[in-house]
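Fill in residues.
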């Protein structure tokens, strides 16, 4: 019988996957939508909930001994890849609301070593379908064109896209979100261009308050306790989870507690690593 060496629970993507009408914040800053009293807790202007559908495109995952985004571009020289999508143009698409991802590509056991910096590369567009029921009233996320837009009580919910092209709420391009704390370490997020794998950050990469030429997101974790892959490790797995996270509603400036007049869109999701050891002899 396989022995589970350890399960490390990580809010890995706790900031990266926000719709374009909300700049990124960590999952700890986005409270769950309240089903009992008010949708939005206290002074919060957003709340998160479980979507019916959450589609994302994964290109690559890996483990590194040194932060691969410490320079101007992604540097894999100290990394070992654990997943590479077969489709390098579109990535491996999966609806993560359905559970474990059957990603299409090449999966590999990490090379033996000690790794403190897991990373993931995804497309910067996320497709959701979401509704939230509270006190007999159902709120539906609706779309304008293909983009997630309004939230109202007229259904049904519509499948819509959330595109991330800016981490700041306004101003010049801000393609980095650094130092978000989760249980187990820090998370850094970067907007980037696939053709160059470089960071999108600075006024020279700005167009109307958005970063230009963004088609990828890189998430890099800095773990408090490093992952150790030794010869007894048989398998390494990352499991995605959108329960309670994958969709958001926002409230406007007047901020009535139960009025999602700021619209809705995609939200963060979480996940965890599992390292499986060979059975003891």
């Amino acid at each position: 019988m396989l022995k589970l060496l350890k399960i490390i629970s990580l809010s890995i993507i706790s900031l990266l996957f926000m719709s374009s009408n909300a700049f990124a914040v960590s999952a700890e800053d986005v409270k769950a939508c309240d089903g009992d009293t008010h949708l939005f807790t206290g002074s919060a202007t957003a709340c998160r909930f479980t979507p019916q559908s959450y589609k994302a495109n994964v290109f690559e995952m890996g483990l590194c001994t040194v932060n691969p985004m410490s320079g101007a571009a992604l540097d894999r020289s100290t990394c070992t890849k654990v997943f590479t999508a077969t489709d390098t143009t579109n990535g491996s698409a999966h609806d993560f609301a359905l559970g474990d991802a059957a990603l299409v590509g090449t999966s590999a056991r990490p090379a033996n070593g000690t790794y403190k910096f897991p990373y993931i590369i995804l497309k910067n567009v996320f497709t959701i379908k979401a509704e939230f029921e509270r006190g007999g009233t159902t709120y539906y996320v609706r779309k304008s064109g293909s983009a997630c837009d309004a939230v109202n009580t007229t259904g049904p919910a519509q499948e819509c896209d959330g595109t991330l092209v800016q981490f700041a709420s306004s101003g010049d391009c801000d393609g980095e979100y650094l130092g978000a704390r989760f249980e187990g370490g820090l998370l850094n997020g970067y907007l980037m261009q696939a053709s160059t794998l470089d960071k999108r950050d600075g006024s020279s990469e700005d167009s109307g308050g958005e970063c230009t030429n963004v088609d990828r997101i890189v998430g890099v974790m800095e773990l408090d306790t490093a992952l150790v892959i030794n010869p007894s490790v048989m398998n390494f797995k990352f499991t995605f989870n959108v329960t309670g996270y994958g969709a958001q509603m926002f409230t406007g400036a007047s901020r009535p507690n139960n009025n999602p007049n700021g619209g809705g869109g995609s939200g963060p999701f979480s996940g965890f690593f599992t390292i499986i050891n060979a059975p003891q002899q």
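Residues 1-27 have pLDDT under 50 and may be disordered.
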